[in-house]
Sequence to fold (88 residues):
Amino acid sequence: MDDLLLNNPQLLGMDPAKLQFIMEFAQKGKPQSMKDAMPFLIANMNLAKKQNINFSNSEVHLIADLLCRDLPEEEQNKVKKIMAMLGR
Fold:
């Protein structure tokens, strides 16, 4: 299991559908550039929406952290700035 998820208190008591979605997201191959990362994130969030799964701000941050882990630091900073602008 991903270190970010292992023993993460956010996951305790989480709705099983959300938990499954996040675990599956963590296992997916992630894009290596910002250009590809945001469309990947949006596509996955739209998939969750189609499954009637809505995430809290802290859960969206967790998903963004999972997405960013494999990006270069400069690209990670871009994602964080976008998340901040979105008020997340």
Summary: The CA atoms of residues 69 and 76 lie 8 Å apart. The chain has four helices and no strands. The helical segments are 16-27, 34-50, 57-68, 73-85. The two ends are 25 Å apart (CA to CA).
